[in-house]
Every structure is written in C-alpha cells, then in structure tokens.
Design brief:
The structure is a single chain. By secondary structure, the protein is mainly alpha-helical. It has a domain of 96 residues. Helices cover 74% and strands 0% of the residues. It contains five helices and no strands. Helix 2 packs across helix 3 and helix 3 runs antiparallel to helix 4. The longest helix has 29 residues. The radius of gyration is 23 Å and the shape is elongated. The chain starts with a helix and ends in an 11-residue tail after the last helix. It holds the Pfam family TetR_C_4. It comes from Carboxylicivirga marina. InterPro entries: Tscrpt_reg_YsiA_C. Keywords: Signal.
Length: 138
C-alpha cells in the first residue's frame, strides 16, 4: 500500500513536470522569432518587387533589374549562411549594398517614396515582434 502511494505521487509529479515543461516550450515558440529569417524564394522575391512597384510605379525594366538585385543579394546571403552564421555587421553591410543597388535603379522622383517605404518597414518591424519579419527590404 505504501509503495502504491509513492508510485501515485511520483506519477502525479511527473505529469505536472511534463505539463509545465511543454507549456514553457509553447510559450517560447509564440514569442520572438529566433534566428535569422528564412531566405525568400523566387515567388516571395516577386511579391517584394510587386510591393515596390505598387509604391513606386516601377517600369518593367526597373522591376526586372530590382528582381535580379534581390535574387543576387539572397544568393549571397544563402552562401554566407552555408559556411556558418554571418556576423551582424556582415549582414548590415549586405543590406546597405542592397539598398544602394536599388537606389541606383530608381529615378530621382522615386527615391523619396522609397526612403519613406523603407522607414515605415523599419518602424513596423520594431512594433510587431510577432509579425513575419521583412528584414531584407531595408
């Protein structure tokens, strides 16, 4: 009888421990995005260019050049990730280069709207930590 009571208490304690640990894992997964964002595929890049087109009224030539810039940029990011985790500074430098390359494609009239769009995206990322990250548009 004494052994049965010990076994019952052990089972209850084990069940409680399991429930607590599972709820902790679930709470962590609902929190902040961990690690780098996934690299966009061709379809996602197309959507990114489409959003720029909506905001900036890109020409067909600009759209195709910007799509090529994004594709090249994300290929570099993927290559860097394949050999280890790139430093924050490396990634920041890649974003600066991406931004510069895109700005070189845009007209003088489109640049203020582009800068405004990028600033809005930065502010949006700062607010909604649970939202899908769009880090590469800056």
């Amino acid at each position: 009888m004494k052994n049965f009571e010990i076994l019952r208490q052990f089972t209850i304690a084990s069940a409680l421990l399991l429930i607590c640990s599972l709820s902790g894992v679930q709470a962590q997964s609902k929190g902040k995005h961990q690690g780098p964002p996934p690299i966009p595929d061709a379809e996602q890049i197309e959507k990114m260019v489409s959003k720029l087109d909506e905001a900036l009224s890109l020409s067909d030539e600009q759209s195709s050049k910007i799509e090529a810039i994004y594709t090249h940029h994300f290929k570099i990011v993927e290559d860097k990730r394949s050999v280890g985790r790139p430093s924050r500074e490396e990634m920041q430098q890649l974003r600066v280069e991406l931004d510069k390359d895109i700005k070189n494609i845009l007209s003088a009239e489109q640049l203020p709207a582009y800068d405004k769009l990028i600033e809005e995206q930065k502010q949006q990322r700062g607010k909604g930590k649970g939202n899908k990250p769009q880090r590469y548009n800056s």
